[in-house]
Design a protein that fits this description.
This protein has 509 residues and is mainly α. The chain has one domain. The protein has 19 helices and 2 strands. A two-stranded antiparallel sheet has the order 1-2. Helix 5 runs antiparallel to helix 6, helix 6 packs antiparallel against helix 8 and helix 16 runs antiparallel to helix 17.
Length: 509
Amino acid sequence: MSLHTTHVDWFGLGTIFALIGASFLALLCAVLVPRATRRVASASISAAGFTAGIVLSIWLYIESADGHTIVSGAFYRDRWTALGQVILCGIGLATTLVGHEHVPGWARSADQTRRDDHIAEFYALLLASAAGMAFFVGAGNLMTLFLSLEWFSIALYIMCAIDYDLEGSLEAGLKYLIVGSFGAAALLFGSALVYGATGTVSFHGIATAAATHGLTNDTFLVVGIALIIAGLGFKMSAAPFHMWTPDVYEGASTTVTAWMSSATKVAALLLAFRLMTTAFPHNGHLWGWAFAIVATASLAIGNFAALVQRNVKRILAYSSISHAGFMLIAVSAGSALGGRALMYYLVPYSAMAFGSFAIVAARERELGVPVTLENLAGFGWERPFLGVAMWFFMFGFAGLPLGGGFVGKFYVFAAAYRHGWVWLVIVGVLATLVSLYYYLGIVRAMYMRPSEELQVQPGGTVAVSGGAPAAERLLHVAVGAALAVSVGSLFAVQPLIDLARHAASALPI
């Protein structure tokens, strides 16, 4: 009697296995490595895992010109998946560098003694969440989609609450868990309705069944698509599914926030674009308008709510909601140009989002309190490199021609214009004008506000509201890399567009 098993393309899953293997080794550090060397050991394993993931993903990108599904159609091995995995692993490597100095936090006492109780677990969760996202972007059916979504979401829930001595950390983890569960339930229920209408969970199978049986306007299918969009909207922090974002971003450790603000956007948006164009191409008139409406709501709520915020993390959280709206403009177009625009936009956005939160983490450690526009005063003069990087990131967010954010916005507007949605371009331009107020407000706070609270007192001690800046060399390396990607994406436009075009060619658009 012979046992027939499904052929598995192990190389196609290489990035995921590298991340999972590194996660397992990092977790072993928690019990086998002495406390004195646990931080260095687990960070080294994490860096090695993400580096291996980058190398394997680049290799897969080169070797996967003829994209196809593997593992019985459960996973796509193509350039869209591979390039998404490169971005995710790059963000993970930068998070590893910042986490070495900032997670699970530094004691709030005067001597700044490290607490390494859960540092190995943090890196294990970071790698596990990255592996889940790497699997998520290549999902080939609704079952793989949901399982990988829960995979990385559970890791993120714990990461938000891992620094339990930090005020708001446990609250952030609980809020994310509760609201994220509603999002996951909506996605699962929508998937069930789609399966009930088409009889299959495969993306290609759904499209074929809808075309063959004339299910374009089937009630179950339409409601299922709506629920799936809502479920994905929670993960990409798009309005009106954004209600958890400001509180969770503010309450979680800033290093975790930096990871979430960039990586979850990459995973959710890339998967959403593949899912809609592959599984529901005949319903483009429905989900196109749905995403356009969500994009408009995200731009309006994200920008206007950010105007009245004083906490810098909350400002950046609403900025994240706004940028979800910009990227959803590309998704709503549902075209090859939209796919290229989305993939390109995610590169500078991820760098700017991660870099800005990393700089906030440095200021938090220096002050020992949440960063506001008031206590950001003088930061640009005290930490020149981080100050310059921050205003580059803010200008890039605003779409000014100092980084790839300018080209990214132009690209998504071009996709909307070619799709015939001039009104959506006008909404995006108006939102950009509104955003100038709070982005330039952060730059103004760093350079043009008095910094009496941060003056050195007689005797060489520092005032209660301030502190002596730490060296933070690894954080500077991570911020420098983010700055290089953000600014470099403006000068390397054509190579990045070529990469995005080759990646988008894997989709049926």
